[in-house]
Amino acid sequence: MEKAKILKMAYKAGAVLRWHPDFYCLLKRGFDHIRGGSFTQWKKIIQSTSPELLREPSESESKGDILFISPRWWLIHQGWETIIAYILRWQGFRPHFLICNNAMDMCDSYDPKQKIGDICAQCRRDIHGFMTNSKIPFSKFSDWIDIESVKNEALKCSNLWDPNTEFNKFTYDNFPIGDLIWISLVRHFRKIRFSSDPHAIATSRKFLESGIIAYRAIQNIINSRNWKYVFGVNGSFFIEAIAGEFARQKGIEFFSYERGIKKDYVLLSKKSPISSWDILNIYKNREPLNAAEEKEIDDYCAVRKIGGQAVVNYWPQVEADKKKIIDELKLDPTKKIFTAFPNITWDSAVINREIFFKDLWDWINTTIAHISQRPDVQLIVRVHPAEIRLRQKTTERVADLIKEYYPQLPANIRVIDSESPISSYTLVEISDKILVYTTTVGLEAAMVGKEVIVSARTHYRGLGFTTDCANKEEYLKALDEQRAIDRPAIIEKARRYAYTLFFDTHIPFKSITEEEGDYHYNIKSLDDLKNGDFPEVGFFSKFPFNAPDGFISYRMTQLSK
Asked: Hey, what CATH topology would domain 290-505 get?
């Protein structure tokens, strides 16, 4: 036990100091072994599994080959992917994983406190070890391309990019590399407006080089055999986005998945990335909610208000008292209150969703400038708590942008910073109008009958329960007009859509429980998984490959069996 304590201390020190990656990984593996972490758990699960459940179907008995794009070590994602792969293997499919193995100089795995070389070394060892333990065939980028040769080619091509032109217009081999990398590049800088200084330009070129390397490896592996399907996380990260686009061009169905809004659930989409929230087909076919479903959505929303059932709790402390909030913000209850709820500026739900505003900041700035001329209206800007609650801290805070542009805040404008415990739900309650770009708060406000003015391409736009503006003039007019709204109709449509979003689309994944920074398995072997009561087994055993494009409905799939 004393040895375990020493190793634990060394592991923590290594995590802080980021020693030599080989030593760091050795310490991490040692500590994982002692504490029974997910890495060690998975190895023991495979060792304890009956040989017949590990067997891969022969080529003659196979229903087809499935390619999993799994380039980086993102803990729980490999856990979900390998469980899904085994369930599909038991149905006669042959899964194969593609990993990176230190082929690129830049990717979505980024920590400003670490050198990219250290990140790559750690990632390579972890994912290679995990996949080796998994007993599922896998290959590396270097198995499909000559890394040095392609790197040299990529370097030459990236230097052709003119920083004075739009990054997302860059193409390679007539393939939209720049557009497919754009979301990852914005996530890397963690802001939407990054300067054209030498560092930003060099980093952008590194991303283009990595995109070209990924494209060449994916091109070669997909062309190597007749893949039945391709899977990848999210669909918006550049490696998976490139794989999805190439698969679509080849006529191969691409499925993206991601963690759900609710803890220990996953989402699944055909063709479109998860960040698109393409659930329209499910919503259109959804019957009005019955009494049990009405109660279900009520119970969930009550828990959601205090941060329950979420993967990340944005509100560890909540101030929901209406009077206290009004007093703290020095609001005049006799005047109208509008509340704007911006996303974080680099949210994938924001990028490429512009309609008439240049970006999220253009929307905020225009709104403040307009309302500042309306002394009869008070505007609250509630900054998203994800700015400080996510592990990836933002480098562009909305409150700082507002201070930069408005050193002296107009008298009728209030800004609630991301650290504030003030409840967004209470703000909705006291507001006359709710202003959103793409955030889910707009949906939740419509559920209680508020007028919601939408200014970008959010997934719930155009469904009859929001005010949808097509240009800036319409937006300013919507701010100024007193509109009569059909509250009962808005509430019914919004609640039905919310049920579709929070329940119909969510696939329960009970064999794995996510924890902060890790996860653990709820099985001792794959025999437990196959023979136990795990809903993911039932779902993926009868996987709806022929489902319509967009999100796949878990509940409707179950009802159709």
From this structure: Rossmann fold (3.40.50)
pTM: 0.89
Q: In whole angstroms, what separates CA 465 from the centre of its chain?
A: 25
DSSP for 25-40 reads: HHHHHHHHHHHT-HHH
Say yes or no to pLDDT of 308 above 90: no
pLDDT tens per residue, range 165-199: 889 999 999 999 999 999 999 988 888 777 778 98
| Residues contacting residue 222 through CB under 8 Å, at least 6 positions apart | 67, 230, 243, 246, 247, 250, 252
Would you state the pLDDT for residue 316?
63
For every residue of 501-521, DSSP letters joined together read IIIIT-EE-TTEEEETTEEEE
Q: How far apart are the first and last CA of the chain?
A: 52
Give domain limits for the chain.
1-31, 64-281+509-559, 290-505
CA–CA distance, 358 with 472 (Å, rounded to integer):
11
Cβ(120)–Cβ(84) below 8 Å:
no
Q: How far apart are CA 270 and CA 274, in angstroms?
A: 9
Q: Return the closest-CA partner of residue 68 out of 264, 286, 222.
A: 222
How far is the CA of 25 from the CAs of 52, 77, 100, 280, in angstroms? 33, 19, 18, 44
Q: What are the distances in angstroms from CA 546 to CA 254, 255, 325?
A: 12, 11, 51
Report the length, in residues, of the chain.
561
The residue whose two tokens read 């653990």 is 520
> Which contacts qualify for 484-489: CB closer than 8 Å, 24 or more apart?
485/449, 485/451, 487/449, 488/449, 489/464, 489/465
Using CA atoms, how far residue 341 sits from 28, 349, 447, in Å, is 40, 14, 16
State phi, psi for 65 to the nearest 5 degrees.
Answer: -95, 135
Dihedral sign for Cα 151, 152, 154, 158, please.
Answer: positive
State the Cα–Cα distance between residues 143 and 101, nearest whole angstrom.
Answer: 10
The DSSP 8-state label assigned to residue 75 in this structure reads T
> Would you state the torsion angle of the CA atoms of residues 278, 284, 289, 292, taken in this order, to the nearest 10 degrees?
-50
Beta-carbon contacts of residue 477 (< 8 Å; ≥ 6 apart):
none
Q: Write out the two tokens for 195.
A: 């300067």
Q: What is the pLDDT of residues 484-533, one digit of tens each?
A: 999 999 999 999 999 999 999 999 999 999 987 689 999 999 999 999 99
CA 270 to chain centre: 16
| Residue 526 Cα distances to 42, 79, 92, 110, angstroms | 10, 13, 16, 33
Q: What residues pair up with 453 in beta bridges, in sequence order?
A: 435, 467
**Separation of alpha carbons 341 and 380, rounded Å:** 9
CA atoms 203, 208, 213, 218: torsion sign: positive
